[in-house]
Amino acid sequence: MDMMDKLTILADAAKYDAACTSSGVARGGKKGTIGTASNSGCCHTFSADGRCVSLLKVLYTNHCCYDCAYCVNRRSNDVPRTAFTPRELAELTIQFYRRNYIEGLFLSSAVLKSPDFTTERMIESLRLLRTEYHFNGYIHAKAIPGADPGLTYELGLLADRLSVNIELPSETSLRLLAPDKSKSAIFTPMAQIRDGSEQSKAELKLYRHAPRFAPAGQSTQMIVGATPESDHQILNLTEGLYRKYHLKRVFFSAYMPVSSHKSLPAPAGFKPPLLREHRLYQADWLLRFYGFTAREILDDTHPNFDAALDPKSDWALRHPEFFPVEINRADYEAILRVPGIGVRGAQRIVTARRRGPLTFEGLKRLGIVMKRAQYFITCSGRMLPGLCCSQESVYRRLAGLEQAELGGESWRQLSLFDGNVS
């Protein structure tokens, strides 16, 4: 099989791995090396200066000894199989970089023969890139659960970011759909990457030329919609992963029907839960940047997101006792909880009110999204004149804004309810 055929198969097989994130590492060019790593972004994302930065996103192989029901590369699936050699993958990456197609590499793999064997092949590919081709750009590698800790450590010395896919939101679902995998096999390398990264940071404080282990940290991915876990369960797990393993990101991947397994949703008529994925990302943002906890956003009495509202607006409507927030006196944390006010907006408000009281017009000039925020704030003790603030009317207006901002066609594509969201 020639290289283009291999690339076609293995790039297509990698599309289910989520990696659209900033690199989280900055490394300037060095004499005698090729490429740099910038923390401004990678994998077809837009950087702060407006650039779209791209990665070569590919599997080392799609040969797999596991039979995970939700995976297109499972051993029982009849698909064309192939694998790169380490030299082929390194040469392909460097040739793409020289042609300005990519700025980095995202490397994952199915499990060929065993986790150790697969990890060794990945390590050899990255070693060729780093030492023989002197590639200094960004590399994100997927660590293989079950691999020897020494191999995972070697992989982390060559890659900028490591990730271990948690796959499914509960151990019960994992046992049912991925019997070859276990919770402990997934969490063990997560803990190792966390500890290795912290040790590396400590060594760098003592000696700035010490080897760097996964300097951009680690992330993970879980499939949403293949199993019956609630959004509350998924969000609690996400919060626990951030807290215990110091992850940079948790990615959510709406389940795409690739199997007719009896424990999975039937492919016929199944609609990928893209809106649910979208809501989870919005809630994840609240956890990481807005000071929310998982139990505040959802609970046992409210276990799933409202399809019509973003999680922040939904929380605000369910907690009327917190509002209205007085813009001229409230602390930064309280202002952050107002729908329509983001991190930058809250910072601008705190800075601007030092010079005098803010008005509604002043908030607009600061870039605050007043069409949402107006229902939840006061300026100098007054609400916006003529505003209708019954909970039902506010709900309808916020739901209408959400649908309008997503756009009619986008809303229908994202909706869990075939576009019939009330």
Structure, explained:
By secondary structure, the protein is of the alpha/beta class. The protein has helices at residues 3-13, 86-98, 115-132, 149-158, 171-177, 183-206, 231-245, 274-289, 294-297, 311-318, 332-336, 343-352, 360-365, 370-373, 391-406, 408-414, and strands at 45-46, 52-53, 55-59, 104-108, 138-142, 161-163, 218-224, 249-254, 325-326, 377-378. The chain has 2 domains: 3-225, TIM Barrel (Alpha-Beta Barrel); 311-414, no CATH class. It is 41% helix and 9% strand. A 6-stranded parallel β-sheet has the order 3-4-5-6-7-8. The radius of gyration is 24 Å and the shape is globular. Residues 38-43, 45-51 and 415-422 have low confidence and may be disordered.
Based on the model shown, name its key terms.
single chain, 422 residues, alpha/beta, TIM Barrel, 2 domains, six-stranded parallel sheet, two-stranded antiparallel sheet, 9% strand, disordered C terminus
Please report which band the strand proportion falls in: under 5%, 5-15%, 15-25%, 25-35%, 35-45% or over 45%: 5-15%
Q: Which architecture of the largest domain does the CATH hierarchy give at level 2?
A: Alpha-Beta Barrel
Quick check: average pLDDT?
87
SSE pattern = HEEEHEHEHEHHEHEHHHEHHHHEHH
Overall, the morphology is: globular
**Helicity range of the residues?**
40-55%
Largest sheet strand order: 3-4-5-6-7-8
Q: What is the CATH domain class of the largest domain?
A: Alpha Beta
The oligomeric state of the chains shown is single chain
**Number of structural domains:** 2
SS-derived structural category: alpha/beta
Low-confidence stretches: 38-43, 45-51, 415-422
CATH topology of the largest domain: TIM Barrel
Instruction: Please report the number of helical segments.
Output: 16
Give Rg in angstroms: 24 Å
**DSSP strand tally:** 10
For the termini, the CA-CA separation is 52 Å
Largest sheet: 6 strands, parallel
